[in-house]
Design brief:
single chain
Length: 240
């Protein structure tokens, strides 16, 4: 049984995670991967909205029960096939506009997933975005830190990863963690409208994806220690 559903209306795909707290394990990643295959297999204008079916959770992080005792949770998949980081890499460079409709809590890996989208709209009255690994006695892996650093302002980055700050809707908007907030009743419709607005960008799908690679991939300008004058003098080094 799939843990996600993918619907399409016009140019907008809506992916709904429907696995309770939507904790990350191999089975969820497999289902999400199939959904992304369908989105990428389309052509022309398109955009993707993701949300959760729960009234409380967008995604509540890694499936720690499964990680600690995979033999007791065989339906969650093979832990040796957990290509979680690779999936996040695919999501952040998906060649169509992506909008996260954050309907509830997004902790740890759920926060990561939201940040992999191009645009985030969060429920204003309930739910938190939080990188809570340090509270769980875990060290955030380097690739995850890189994602947070690319997506968050410097002071917000430190408060998020080192101080495990919980960002509610209004504070997340003020800090620049999300782009907009909306009521629970209007959140999904608001996200779909934004997706309809952005969908024409995917007509130039190859270019849309290449530019994401320029921002987040190998030889990322954001991580380059050289200055703009060097970049302008040596444009061939940065050609795609």
């Amino acid at each position: 049984m799939s843990r996600v559903t993918l619907d399409k209306s016009g140019d907008v795909f809506v992916l709904t995670m429907d696995a309770g707290e939507n904790r990350w394990n191999t089975a969820l990643v497999d289902d999400l991967t199939l959904a992304l295959d369908e989105v990428e297999g389309s052509s022309g204008a398109a955009a993707l909205v993701t949300t959760g079916a729960s009234e409380k959770f967008y995604s509540n992080g890694l499936d720690l029960d499964w990680r600690n005792a995979p033999e007791s949770h065989v339906d969650a998949g093979d832990p040796n096939a957990f290509y979680f980081m690779e999936f996040m890499s695919r999501m952040i460079t998906l060649p169509v506009p992506t909008i996260a409709a954050v309907n509830g809590h997004a902790f740890g890996a759920g926060f990561m997933f939201a940040l992999c989208h191009d645009y985030r709209i969060m429920r204003q009255d309930r739910g938190y975005l939080c990188a809570n690994e340090i509270q769980l006695g875990m060290v955030i892996p380097g690739p995850e830190l890189s994602l947070f650093r690319h997506k968050l302002p410097a002071h917000v980055f430190y408060e998020s990863v080192q101080l495990a700050r919980r960002w509610g809707g209004p504070d997340a908007l003020e800090a620049g963690v999300v782009n907009e907030i909306a009521s629970s009743d209007t959140l999904l419709a608001h996200a779909v409208r934004k997706a309809e607005e952005l969908a024409p960008l995917a007509v130039n799908r190859k270019q849309f994806g290449v530019q994401k690679e320029n921002i987040f991939g190998a030889r990322s300008i954001l991580n380059d220690t050289n200055g703009a004058a060097f970049h302008l003098r040596n444009k061939k080094l940065y050609a795609r």
